[in-house]
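seq as requested:
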Amino acid sequence: MKKLFVFIGWMWVLCQALPANAQGEARDIVRRAADAFLRSGGVNVSFSLRSPEGQSAGTIRLKGEKFVLEAGGMTTWFDGHTQWTYLPDSDEVNVSEPTDEELQTLNPYAWLSLYDRGYDLKLLPSEVSGQYKVEMVARSPEAQVSRLVLWLDKSGLQPVKFSLTLAGSVEPTVITVLDYRTGQTYANAMFAFNPREYPTAEVIDLR
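struct tokens:
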């Protein structure tokens, strides 16, 4: 009987340890992907996007936390602090200082540095050989993004697909990377709105 209790005790310990180990492995993979991304220098990505509103395509140029995003007819610049979004239909530029969560919905690569802030990670079986599949689930029901699934190429740890589910939504937004180029040279000025290029635009400061 004593051996039975010892066996049950060890089984309980193993069952408690497995999720932690699995989460640790998933966290380590994303951490290494973040390190690889930061070492890549300037990055140019073209992608397709499928959301509940429809399908579109776009490009994003990144340098660390800075980015220029062109998608859905809009252009968004972020210099690491301030964000400018140009709306061509109204010829307006909205200026804001986004939160970390707001950045996650605009720039999926922000997840590579924000993965350890309020999310539980799990390594899932991948449908594609040669890829990692990592699930991130928000601990707080108030999180703007409740769930994200990230597919990473095993050889270079480059993201190949993102699936984001916003709070209150059932259908995710899926972003598929079509082309990924590293080692690009970008001046810091490229990540800020240049009013001389949009002389008629009305600037709306939302800060």
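The first strand starts at residue 42 and ends at 51.
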